[in-house]
Amino acid sequence: MSKYTQMSKPSKAHVQTALFCLAALVAARPSAIAQAAFRSQQATNGIYAEIGIAAGEIALPTSKVSYCFLTTNEFGTKIFYPKPEYFCRARLLDAHGSNMPPTALGRAMGKHFTDLKTFSRDKLQTTGGRGSDPVRPRFENIRSDSCAGTVFPTPEALFEIPGPGKYTLQLEFQVFQQVRQGTNYLYNLTILPAVDVPVIKPEGTKP
User: Fold this and answer.
1) pTM above 0.85, yes or no
2) CA atoms of 14 and 22, how far apart (whole Å)
3) Is the separation of the CB atoms in 94 and 188 below 8 Å?
4) Deepest in the core among 11, 29, 96, 157, taking most CB within 10 A?
5) SS3 108
6) Where are any strands of DSSP class E within 40-134?
């Protein structure tokens, strides 16, 4: 067991606060995808994830990170976003492959990732609705040629980074893909391969 894996259990209030903050971040207004981008090694059900960083080819602990999804389907496809506790599982590894300890926000993210099995509206992120429906599930029609990045927490917001060195941020996403079958729609859970993003903490940086 890594020396970084032991930590105190967060209080229920801290977890609820972290989930509230995380929901606001992962559903933030989209912006243009960052200059440097890293993708899933392969598509799953024709979908793959792309992670962008604000500048350069290596992220810093404070770097702005964004995510988006693309499809190999030339006609596009529609996806629905699970809530933050199901949506993304994140890890930060040091140069030796040891896990870095997550912050309260990092612990809240994806804490029920493996519990998501079937489509359920109450497990989806929501956005402002229209008419008689005050909220609606967050969904997106993704394309094959371009995507808009959505703001994601910085590495240091998700993990404690003890000292200078090279790290790898691993992000694993899952979404529901809408598939038409006859006159009905199916919503298939699609788990995407983890995307590896290089992170470096420069010498002289405060813990």
Assistant:
1) no
2) 12
3) no
4) 157
5) helix
6) 47-53, 65-71, 77-80, 88-93, 126-128
pLDDT tens, the chain, 207 aa long: 333 334 445 555 554 545 544 554 555 444 444 457 899 889 999 999 999 987 667 899 999 899 999 999 999 999 999 999 999 999 999 999 999 999 999 999 999 999 999 999 999 999 876 766 668 999 999 999 888 889 999 999 999 999 999 999 999 999 999 999 999 999 999 999 999 999 999 987 766
How far apart CA 148 and CA 78 sit, in angstroms, is: 15
Q: How many CA atoms lie within 13 A of 132 on its CB side?
A: 0
Closest CA to 59 of 135, 155, 203: 155
Taking CA atoms, 24 is separated from 83, 125, 160, in Å, by 11, 10, 21
List the domain boundaries for the chain. Answer: 12-201
Is the dihedral angle over the CA atoms 156, 161, 163, 164 positive or is it negative? negative
CA distances from 8 to 11, 22, 23, 107, 131 (A): 9, 20, 23, 11, 45
Computed on alpha carbons and rounded to an integer, the radius of gyration of the chain in Å comes to 17
What SS3 string covers 1-16? CCCCCCCCCCCHHHHH
Spell out the alpha helix ranges (H) of the chain. 12-26, 84-87, 104-108, 155-158
Q: Give the list of residues 6+ apart from residue 138 with CB closer than 8 angstroms, or none.
A: 27, 80, 81, 124, 125, 126, 127
